[in-house]
Design goal:
Largest sheet: 21 strands, parallel
Strand content: 15-25%
Helix content: 25-40%
Number of strands: 32
């Protein structure tokens, strides 16, 4: 756009950027936004310190001094798009700081003037004025830079009061225009001039000619002429000497071909360096009285070949209403122009010819057309071309595009995005211009094979929005590549930098990367920025390394942390990667195995220690022997039915305590009144059976088991067996079958560790102590007999019937406890 955009900058910068900021900001003491509230009057609640006030798009029809007298700090006032019919500048007498005043798009018919010395921007455009509302007070507005006016008639005298002002921009809206006095616009002294006509009225070409003579930058909106070509006023011969315009923009142009050619001839020889035509519609007829279309073209071609001042030509949104003419002639005119920059955008152009001689084109933009792979094939005259933009066309073959550039010796930038390009990786070699350093291949149909057809000296490469799944290894090296864009493809992982030794910027956003490689920066040491966000990250152990990579990279991940979010698993969707953490043990397989192995070894060691300390193998062996004994007893079916009691008690004692048992215990229990039938191993063990079997059988056939405890007892292995099996019976039958007799005190440290059952029994059960005093022994025997009290079956009773031993309640309670 260049200088042409300055017209819009000065005319709209405040009303576009400033007001846009106003609308998006909250009301405070400096900015008050009351736009689009259907107001009919200026609010009385405006803060007194307001500097910027927006009252646009309301229904306000009148203003008064009282509404603004308290706003002494007011600098910017926007009253556009209201229903104001009369404007009195005296309303702002007390607003001495007012610089920006916008009354555009109202119904103002009359203005009452007063000097506003500090005003810089005044917009009265798009109103109902017949003549320009310029009064003599305007000559004192020396600081005025932008002036917007509207009228239906223009006379030279209308500008007399602003002739001495150094205006940057003047906007004239001439809707319903009816009269123009020639040379009126030349009275203006402005850098930029914009003329806006109604879309349904014929344009006055005198305004165009005078406008080109009045301003350096000229813009005209709605250039339309429906009359016959013969009524078209040819430009005066002396006009070329008066033209000051160097930049010309024509927006919304609807003209016949002969008129367009005539205007173009005029502009070509004028000082205009930059011509922009937007929304151009050209119509027939091709032939007019006194002229032939081919004659006009031939004349144009001859004059163009001589050169002119124009350097930049831009045609945008071109619509052709002329059919059945030789378009090649038109393309030839464009190709032979001595321009530095040519843009033909959105013109449905199917082709462009290669210049016949060395061209001066440095910039070509043919975007949004219908160009094909046949463009500029074998064209060697575009040697000065540096930038070529071919977006949104119909190119299909990437090798043909490369051949197109091969003879463009100065080409640095090529944009063929949004086409139909593909490359199947065939043996066809690609030949690019060696000078090409920037290449845009985005939004095409390229696959992994594209890396076999790239310019070797490219520094910036855009391949986003294609169908690339990976960067193949062993491809041609791109040693100069600094920026690579692979966003919106199908990559499953970060590419390596094996062939990109100079890569500094990489974009892989919006691919299919679940778990990026954590060694990326190791393989790509020169990368300064990685854009890897907006991928469907799978938050697992593999991703932990990538999260750690961000912390070590020193801020090289662009968009961190907002663009890096978990997608899988479902329960973590939406969580930022920076908030995702897993224990190191859960992700380090080696550490997990070593830990598990150590724990297993510790567990085995503890179990082994406990087994040894608690004599677990011995108990296992005893349990096994008990089980085997029971199994054999069940298979052999013994004569005496199991579970039938034959003895009152089984005696377990150490052989070292045998004298006490034979001399004291047995005589006192088996003789006398209420004799007891005892089972003693020397007389009741059955020959032929193992000792263990005999012990088990005797215990099971005895009502009670009497254990004579002493230091000798705990040293006896067989006593331990007998205690174990008796204890087993205690738990299996839930009966109170154990009787402990403490013959001698047993210090706790004397009892081996494996005798934990004995320790438990002595701690929880009451035992009978053998008294040393003879006077206490009668009570001892009475308690013992009471504990063994039971009626044996008659088949096993001795010849003399055993009498029940009746004990006192106190003895029974003592024993049972």
């Amino acid at each position: 756009m260049g200088p042409l955009s300055n017209i819009q900058v000065f005319a709209c910068v405040c009303t576009f950027l400033l007001w846009n900021n106003i609308q998006t900001s909250v009301e405070n003491e400096f900015i008050a936004n009351y736009s689009s509230r259907s107001l009919t009057n200026v609010p009385k609640t405006i803060p007194v310190h307001t500097q910027v006030l927006d009252l646009s798009h309301n229904r306000i029809s009148g203003l008064s001094t009282l509404e603004f007298i308290s706003l002494s700090d007011l600098q910017v006032l926007n009253l556009s798009h209201n229903l104001i019919t009369e404007l009195d500048f005296g309303v702002f007498f007390f607003n001495q700081d007012l610089e920006h005043l916008d009354f555009s798009h109202n119904n103002i018919l009359k203005v009452y003037c007063q000097t506003l010395a500090y005003l810089r921007h005044l917009d009265l455009s798009f109103n109902k004025f017949t003549a320009l509302p310029v009064c003599q007070e305007f000559r004192n507005m020396f600081r005025l830079e932008f002036l917007g006016l509207s009228a239906t008639t223009l006379r030279r005298s209308d500008f007399r009061y602003i002739r001495g002002l150094q205006l940057r921009t003047v906007l004239l809206t001439l809707e319903g225009f009816s009269l123009y006095e020639p040379q009126s616009l030349t009275a203006l002294d402005t850098r930029s001039l914009r003329l806006v006509f109604a879309a349904n009225q014929n344009f006055s070409f005198s305004l165009l000619y005078d406008g080109m003579s009045a301003s350096e930058n000229l813009r005209i909106d709605n250039l339309r002429y429906t009359l016959s070509y013969e009524y078209f006023p040819s430009p005066p011969v002396t006009l070329l000497k008066k033209i000051k315009a160097t930049a010309l923009m024509l927006d919304t142009v609807d003209l016949q071909w002969p008129i367009i050619l005539q205007l173009f001839l005029l502009i070509w020889y004028s000082p205009v360096e930059r011509l922009t035509v937007r929304n151009l519609t050209f119509r027939g007829p091709l032939a007019v009285p006194g002229y032939e279309f081919l004659t006009l073209l031939s004349s144009l071609e001859q004059r163009i070949s001589l050169g002119g001042s124009m350097k930049v030509l831009t045609l945008e949104h071109v619509r052709n209403k002329v059919y059945y003419f030789n378009q090649e002639l038109l393309y030839r005119q464009f190709s032979e122009m001595t321009l530095a920059s040519l843009t033909i955008y959105d013109a449905s152009m199917p082709h462009m010819l290669c210049p016949n001689r060395t061209s001066s084109f440095q910039y070509l933009n043919f975007s949004h057309n219908a160009l094909t792979d046949e463009l500029f094939q074998n064209c060697g005259t575009l040697t000065d071309l540096k930038l070529l933009i071919l977006q949104r066309n119909k190119f299909e073959s990437l090798p043909k595009v490369s051949f197109m550039t091969s003879r463009m010796k100065s080409l640095k930038f090529l944009d063929v995005s949004s086409n139909l390009l593909s490359h199947d990786g065939a043996d066809v070699q690609c030949r690019w211009a060696e000078s090409l350093s920037e290449l845009d291949l985005s939004s095409n149909q390229l696959t992994d094979a594209v890396f076999e057809c790239l310019p070797v000296n490219v520094q910036k490469l855009d391949l986003q929005n294609n169908q690339i799944t990976s960067v193949p290894k062993g491809m041609a090296e791109l040693k100069s590549l600094r920026e690579l864009n692979l966003a919106s493809n199908r990559l499953a992982d970060l590419p390596g930098c094996g062939g990109f030794t100079s890569l500094e910027f990489l974009n892989v956003e919006m691919n299919l990367i679940l778990t990026p490689s954590a060694d990326f920066f190791q393989s790509c040491p020169r990368v300064r920025e990685l854009q890897g966000g907006r991928n469907p990250f799978k938050c697992s152990c593999e991703l932990q390394d990538f999260v750690q990579l961000e912390r070590r990279s020193g801020g090289k991940l662009f968009g961190w942390p907002g663009a890096y979010v978990c997608e899988y698993p479902e329960e973590l969707r939406g969580r930022r990667l920076e908030d995702f953490h897993l224990a190191e043990l859960a992700c380090n397989t080696t550490l997990l195995l070593v830990t598990a192995l150590l724990l297993t070894l510790v567990l085995v060691a503890v179990v082994a220690f406990l087994c040894i300390y608690l004599d677990v193998p011995w108990y296992v062996r005893m349990t096994w022997q008990w089980t085997q004994t029971k199994r054999r007893a069940w298979h052999n079916q013994p004569e005496e039915p199991e579970g039938v009691l034959q003895f009152h008690a089984f005696i377990s004692y150490s052989e070292r305590d045998a004298l006490w048992v034979k001399n004291e215990l047995m005589p006192n229990l088996e003789k006398g009144e209420g004799c007891v039938q005892l089972c003693q191993h020397e007389r009741n063990f059955i020959p032929g059976k193992s000792i263990v079997e005999n012990i088990i059988n005797c215990i099971e056939k005895s009502y009670k088991s009497i254990f004579v405890l002493s230091p000798n007892f705990v040293q006896s292995e067989w006593c331990h067996y007998e205690l174990y099996f008796a204890h087993h019976k205690l738990f299996s039958e839930t009966s109170n079958s154990l009787i402990l007799i403490l013959l001698e005190p047993i210090p706790p440290y004397v009892i081996p560790a494996r005798y934990h059952k004995l320790k438990a029994l002595m701690a929880k059960r009451t035992y009978l102590e053998w008294p040393k005093e003879r006077s206490k022994r009668a009570l001892f025997w009475a308690n013992l007999r009471a504990a063994i009290n039971i009626k044996l079956p008659k088949s096993f009773e001795p010849n003399e019937e055993l009498n029940d031993v009746t004990s006192t309640s106190g003895i029974s309670e003592y024993v049972n406890n």
